Amino acid sequence: MTPTKPNSSGNSSGNSSDKGRSKSSSNTRPRIEKRSLTGILLLDKPVGITSNRALQIVKRLYRATKAGHTGSLDPLASGMLPLCFGQATKVSHWLLDANKTYEVEACIGAQTDTADADGEVINRSGRDRVTLEMLEAAIQAHLGDLEQVPPMYSALKKDGKRLYELARAGQTVERAARRIHIFEIRIVKFDSQRPVLLVRCSKGTYIRTLVETLATAMGTLAHVTALRRTALGPFEPQSMVTMEELEPLAEDQAALDELLLPADAALTAFPAIHLTQDEAFYLGNGHPVGHASAEITGLTRIYDHNEHFLGVGEVLPDGRVAPKRLFTGA
Description:
Layout: H1 23-27, E1 39-45, H2 51-62, E2 67-69, E3 77-85, H3 92-96, E4 100-108, E5 110-112, E6 121-124, H4 132-140, E7 144-148, E8 157-158, E9 161-162, H5 163-168, E10 178-189, E11 196-201, H6 207-217, E12 222-232, E13 241-242, H7 243-246, H8 253-257, E14 272-274, H9 277-284, E15 289-290, E16 298-303, E17 309-315, E18 320-326
Parallel strand pairs: 1-13, 3-12, 14-16
Antiparallel strand pairs: 1-3, 2-3, 4-11, 4-12, 5-6, 7-10, 8-9, 10-11, 15-18, 16-17, 17-18
C-alpha cells in the first residue's frame, strides 16, 4: 500500500463542465436509453469522491435503470465498493452485514475533528512517535469484542439528521456505543510516526475511531491519513475494477457486462439447495417446500432444476424451505 492524501480538487462533483450551458443546448442532447441488468460490480473506488458520486458515474456508464452501493467509503478512502444493479440490490443487505478488511495508515501525534486527514487539527500530543512494542501491546488490547462509540463525522442519523450534518454545524450529540468485533490487526509496515495496519473487522466498525483508541492506549493522539478497503464478505481484491478500466468501455455495453458478478456471488457463505421444477413453482408462489437435509439450517441459496438462482430461502424447523427474498421473474 502506498498511502496518498487526496487533493482538494478530488472532492468536486464533476459537474463544472455543465456551467454556462444554455437551456436550449441541454435540450438537444440525444436521449440515452436506460436498460435493466442484474449483477454486482466490485468497484475500486478512487480517493477524493463520495461513494454515491462513484455510484452515479458507474450507473451512467452502464446506462442502468437501478443501482445501489453497499458499505459507504469516505471520500478519503479507496478500495472495494460493491455496486449492485437491478435485482442484485436484493442481496445488498447481506453485503452490508459482511465482515470487511482494510489497510490504514495512521499519523501519530495529532488529532483532527474528523479523525482523518480531511479535517482540521484540533489537538497535538507531545508524543509524536511510538515504538513497535507500544503498538503491539495496543493491538492486543483491541482484539475481539469491543464497544465503540461512532464518530460525529458519520452518516448515522440522530433525530432524522446525519451526524456529520450536526458536526458541521458545530454540534456534538450523545451517541450510544455499539458492539463490534476485531478479528485481526496486523502491522503491514512499522513506522514510528506513520504505521500501516491491516484490520479485519465486523460490520459497523469505524476505522477512524479504532485508530484514535489505539493511539489513546499508547498515550498519544492519531488520525487516519490513508484508508483502503481490500475485501468485503466473500469478495477479494483481485476482482476489483477501477474507473480507468471502466470509462473506455462506455460504448461497449457487452464488455461492461462481462465485468459483473452474478448476484449469488455475494451469498457463498449460505448453503445451496436445488429444487425440482414443481418445488420451484410452489416456492415462487410463496409456499414452503420440503427439501432441506438435516445438515442445512438457517438461510440458504435456492436454485431451480436448471441451476437458475431463485433467491434466498430460510429452512424452517420442520425442514421445509420458505422463501425469504426471491428474484422477480425467477
